[in-house]
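The passage that follows is intended for readers who have already worked through the single-chain material. We present the inputs for a multi-component assembly, then the predicted structure in tokenized form, and finally a short commentary. You are encouraged to pause after the input and sketch how you expect the pieces to fit together before reading on.
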Amino acid sequence: MEKNSRENNTADIASRRDFLRKAGTYTAASLTGTAMLLSPKPSKATANVSWAEHFQKHYRLMTEEEKAEAIERLEKRYSEEFGKKVSVDGSTAIDGVLFGYALNIQKCIGCRRCVKACVAENNQSRGKEQEIEWIRVLRLEKGNFSEEDRDKGGYPDDYGIQVGGNAYKPAGVVLEGQHYYEPDKVPEKDAFYLPMQCMQCEKPPCVKVCPVRTTYRDPDGIVVIDYNWCIGCRMCIGACPYWARRFNWGEPDLPKEDMNPVTHYLGNRPRMKGVVEKCTFCIQRTRKGRWTACVEVCPVGARKMGNLLDPDSDVRKVLATKKVFRLRADLNTYPKFFYFMD
Amino acid sequence: MKRFSSFVFDFIRAAFSGGPLFWAWLLFLSFFIAAYGYGQYVQLVNGMIVTGLNDQISWGFYLANFVFMVGVAAAAVTVVFPAYIYKHHDMHKIVVLGEMVAIAAVIMCLLFVVAHMGRPDRAWHLVPGIGILNWPNSMLAWDVIVLNGYLLLNILGGFYFLYKKYTGEPINKWFYLPIVYIAIVWAVSIHTVTAVLINTMPARPMWFHSIMPIKFIITAFAAGPSLIIIVFLLVRRFTPFKIADNAIHLLSQIVTWCLGIALFFMLSEVVTELYPSTEHAGGLKYLMFGHHGLNALVPFYWTSLGLMVGAFILLLIPRVRKNLKILPFLCIAVFLGIWIEKGMGLMLPGVIPTPVGEYAEYTPSNIEYMIVAGIWAFGFFALTILIKGATGIMLEKVKYQETTEQPSTSKHPGTAATA
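Having made your guess, compare it with the prediction:
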């Protein structure tokens, strides 16, 4: 099951009864929450945030000493909460590096190993209540002409993304896409796949709309978030044309044993409820010269990344030799995430 | 200083004096306010997961109400404007009531925003100096400035007028009139900025229209005066305060014309979207006709349209419009119609389908209903006592007397800040 259970809930055709049932669950959950607050021992990851952490400055405005202090504070808290030695990295962008990414849609088989690897690497919330994934793989139907569909109004009964289609007269060609798919085997014969994640735009609309500058573009081109400064207004979610940002609706559910202890302040450190998160090109890895988790795990080598300023990097080679496109180029966001075909 | 403390004391005394009906009304509202406190507490402890919102639909009921209330607040200008620009005599005296409506509405706006925020505990991050306000880049930063500024202007203008009336001193025109004129322009700005806040995101094609700011203002100038008419009629009925029929007729004319223009804008939008019927029309089509069985919003759209069109046709008939027995019902229809149009009709289809084209339905959770109802109750509570206090002073029920020794111990901390 790749589905985000919370998303899935709402994607269902919500009947009245379903709503009432859900409301009941929420109320029950609220009562548990209240009980949790009263119990002396914090059971959730971010329950004992210190005053110092609560009143710290925006990360970018901190002096070096303040940054070191903040990081030490976090390392101590995370280590206690997760029962293991957790490191929080604060390494800055390397000079002369601008990260770029290229994804081969011809090779992608839709297996979603990247999604799984991303969740494991980046400490996203998991479990029934709230499952957060930074990568979503869209399954797009191949454009076969089907005589049968011709008189069905051009659309299948299921809902999803209308990629092609027509305005008035059904032509019979159905190009629907969606990210909820559960095949027995991938790749499927009649489909191709288009994974989406944060495009690390050069002109990110999310950065522009943030009222407190909590999200910003670092010099290596990665758009980052100071989770401790985010006020949770979700303007960035509204502004993102790629649906790349996720919100921690409740306290993230991150099991101790699965937590990845190698973290970065602006990347995969455990988040708290009420803040936004998204793909950071695995900042904790890439700034140390490693591949992102998704590049590393891809079984077909569809994912390439590297330094856009280096002519010998994988991504530059792709740009030079392949047919490349970006999503929603009309919006002038200048993504550094390219799609290509052989 | 003694004068001021006696003003505060007398204002509160006037605000909280009334018959059994008045106290029953406050008690009734308090019930919802208590539920609001509980709902907000549950949401703070558990996070926004107690709402019906999700990653597909991350803006919902709270922001819909916020947008609507900004309109009501802005509409206070329709009372102030004719009074000062056209020197409309009957309006002049009741400007202060419009300002009280604006104060209550802006307070509600701020509460809706707090309810919408994932981390209200970090609201101080917005305060320049101790935090960072991303101005002028972020439209939300603009909104923070114009809303708080509008609140201050109305408190300053409204209470300065009342204070002078209370002490019997003449009004210093060089101080008061600039505030009034600035407030008029400012009122337009709060709704413009709120519209621009959501229409500057090409990721949300339904909102990405240049018609949005003017449509916001024109719908606000239909809904706001409708509320103000109802408030005036209630004030006339329950207090000896005189409001001339003429003032109400002028307001109902404003409602009629603004409603007509609003309907024309809606028509323009529908034609522009549905004729080419591109992918970008998805939101509007979902709102009007539903999408493969997902049609939760469809009844709201047509109800709202029916209320607005019906009210408009009736308001066009002078005999009906001038009948003060029928008018309140038409006002309620307009108010309700636009409330639906701004809530279910604007906020939700703006985010459905998502940027990747996913359709999902959203129903507010019980906690959301509790909080929204509670904030409305809080707003009506504030409005009631503000108007009670203001009419008390305007009717000279309470007046400053040099000789009386007022005990200043009962000074209320909340209202003392209104200086």
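Commentary: The CA atoms of residues 103 and 303 of chain A lie 5 Å apart. Chain A touches chain B through 73 residues (CB under 8 Å). How closely did your sketch match?
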